[in-house]
Specification:
66 residues, alpha+beta, 15% strand, globular
Length: 66
């Protein structure tokens, strides 16, 4: 019998994970953080982005219709 593990719903995300969640490149995530559009927390040398801030950023993006 195998047991499937549930994915962990993280509170803080790395830049790489944020890039994956938003389907953007790492450099774009760093640019968004530098411009203040994507809030982050700095813990020592590490930068982490709250999952709630990632969701809020994605929700405020305008929809495009062609």
């Amino acid at each position: 019998m195998t047991t499937a593990t549930q994915p962990v719903d993280r509170v803080l995300c790395t830049v790489d994970l944020a890039a994956e969640l938003l389907s953007l490149g790492r450099s774009t995530i760093y640019e968004l953080m530098a411009s203040g559009l994507l809030p982050f927390v700095k813990l020592g040398r590490a930068r982490r982005i709250r999952r709630s801030d990632i969701d809020a950023f994605a929700a405020q993006l305008p929809s495009q219709s062609v």
